[in-house]
Amino acid sequence: MTEEPADAWSGSSPVPPNRGDFYNLLALLPDDQRALLADVRHYLETDIAPVITEHWERAEFPAQIVPALAKMNLAGSKFTGYGCPGQGELFHGLLNVELARIDPSLAVFFGGHDGLGMGTIALCGSEEQKQRWLPPMARMEKIGAFALTEPDVGSDAARGLATTARRDGDTWVLNGVKKWIGNATWCDLVVVWARDEADGQVKGFVVERGTPGFTTEKMHGKTALRIMQNALITLDDCRVPEANRLEHANSFADTARVLRTTRLMVAWQAAGTGRGAFEHALAYATRRTQFGRPIARFQLVQDLLARMLANTTASLTMCARLAELAQAGDMQEEQVSLAKMYVTTATRETVGWAREVFGGNGVLLDHHVTRYTNDAEAIYSFEGTREINSLIVGRALTGISAFV
């Protein structure tokens, strides 16, 4: 008979112990927000976690999550007014962690809608535009997306954006192709960034599904974020009314203003990814036996668990401090770039160690951790690569720009 620690989680309870929050960041939230996150955690563990692997394998999105999240009134949690719950930056970040620890695609889906879609309208929309779109998006009756990246343009979007916008009376004519656009296969509206032919400035437009000249094609063959429904968008003389041009999105500086806030969200998502991998590795180590004892009894396994926890805890606390700065309106671009650079790198390391704990079983979907190792690669790259973010930090440190 093998010996097992008395407090080990065997999987018999639908909700595992909250071991990944080692410094108890939840204690920073008021009681009602902690209770709401507990409800989110219970729903995700009981209804989504048991089916998430088959959705990942089939590259299908679990549509049942949308009404559940809507019922809990979670969309727009860091915004106030317009039907948004106004829970604040820290709650919003820890919510992304709860989603990512089940599957990173869930957090990326939510971020595409809540952070990028709603966030762009909240930051760049007129009062009328906010009143028109934010309330149904907060109720998740309308799902949003964000279209910046193109087939040949990623980090160089400021200078190289090829999608064009031409004013024609009371409408704008959009032409171009967007790539990697999350939620775009099924969402209701997409924020499209295009370069105005008249003045060369990058501007933002809300394109609603069903608009003539707007087509989407699901991307296939992904080995990461398979649950996330990414699309190739084609804009072929796509006409949108002037009323759909975001009033305060008139240059790439406005685009960057949106990305500055959502880059923190991506750091939270990465921290949640590492935490999910760590928690699976911890549970596995306490129940997997070799040489007549749980592998958690071996020093090298405990060392890996401690290293994973250190990475995850450092990442979460860095994000929590940035959430405080963001809430106060004091967060700087270089501060969030440092977090995105560090947390995604630490997560890459963490998921690799988690797979190591599983040995050969780590490459089997039945043991979950391989999803995290694959998905961490995508999060490492989007919303600013490690190299781009390091140059932003380096510029702030030296006063010298090393961008080409």
SSE order and pairing:
Layout: H1 31-58, H2 65-71, E1 80-81, E2 84-85, H3 89-102, H4 104-124, H5 127-138, E3 144-147, H6 157-160, E4 164-168, E5 171-182, E6 189-196, E7 202-208, E8 214-218, E9 230-241, H7 252-287, E10 289-290, E11 293-294, H8 299-327, H9 333-358, H10 369-381, H11 386-398
Helix pairs in contact: 1-3, 3-4, 3-7, 4-5, 4-7, 7-8, 7-9, 7-10, 8-9, 9-10, 9-11
Looking at this protein, list some descriptive labels:
disordered N terminus, two-stranded antiparallel ribbon, Butyryl-Coa Dehydrogenase, subunit A, domain 1, Butyryl-CoA Dehydrogenase, subunit A, domain 3, alpha+beta, 11 strands, 404 residues, Butyryl-CoA Dehydrogenase, subunit A, domain 2
Descriptive account of the structure:
Keywords: FAD, Flavoprotein, Oxidoreductase. Residues 258-397 form the Acyl-CoA dehydrogenase/oxidase C-terminal domain. By secondary structure, this protein is of the alpha+beta class. The chain has three domains: 25-138, Acyl-CoA dehydrogenase/oxidase, N-terminal domain (Butyryl-Coa Dehydrogenase, subunit A, domain 1, Orthogonal Bundle), CATH 1.10.540.10; 144-251, Beta Barrel (Butyryl-CoA Dehydrogenase, subunit A, domain 2), CATH 2.40.110.10; 253-398, Butyryl-CoA Dehydrogenase, subunit A, domain 3, CATH 1.20.140.10. 50% of the residues lie in helices and 15% in strands. The protein has helices spanning 31-58, 65-71, 89-102, 104-124, 127-138, 157-160, 252-287, 299-327, 333-358, 369-381, 386-398; strands at residues 80-81, 84-85, 144-147, 164-168, 171-182, 189-196, 202-208, 214-218, 230-241, 289-290, 293-294. The strands form three sheets. Strands 3, 4, 5, 6, 7, 8 and 9 form a seven-stranded mixed β-sheet that branches. Strands 1-2 form a two-stranded antiparallel ribbon. The protein is globular, with a radius of gyration of 21 Å.
